[in-house]
Model the fold of this input.
Amino acid sequence: MARTFKSIAARCERIQQLGNDVMEETHAFAPKRLSFVEVTDREWRTLFDEALDLVHYSRSCQRVGRCMRLAIVEEGKWVGGIVLGSTFPNILVRDENVGLRKFVTNYKRRGLINPWTRKNRSYWTNLQKVVNHARTFVFPQFQGKGIGIRAHRLLLTKGVKMWEQKYSDDVYALDTLCTADESKLFLLNGWTKAGQTKGYTLDRTQVFSKPLKVIDSREKGIKNNGALTKPQNCIQWWVWTIQLKPF
Done:
């Protein structure tokens, strides 16, 4: 049965109350000004993801690799959240915009069989310094107060510092994939619209290279031989970036 706006709003209020109770139990004091609290408690994490399922168009985010859920807190209340995670490799407009492209050029001169092999440590190591903004949400009862925009401003200082402390890795840039080519969350906080993805996806029913015999070779840096296809209704995401340090 489809949820109504009224039922979603009611459930969001309950989720917020339950999460707030958990936050108060696990933290000596709640920040009075806008701040972040990392969501590590299992119960709170479940509530956080349910909130995303209800209010975000892409629903909750289950990431492989590094992931940090940040509760947005204002005046002692849990008002929304941000999800950060490991970014994705080989996004051309992002790599060109933040300075990662130089780590995949001239790969043959460096004795590499392809730019994306595990042996290209300069690319993969520096890619870890780019953090992906995966989700932002604000509970319906707190919307209309500019919380999302202010939280994104704080993300560039407090949020980045929390990530660096958690993973012991400097953050050089942030990126995000968005369906909107104009978003105040990014426009008003200094992000750059780098361009669009091309919309290709992996098609394992087709092969990328017919003569290739080895399908899984760690030596050659090949994980699969699937082809790239461009579906008729493919999504071409807008890629936004913000540079904090030069590579």
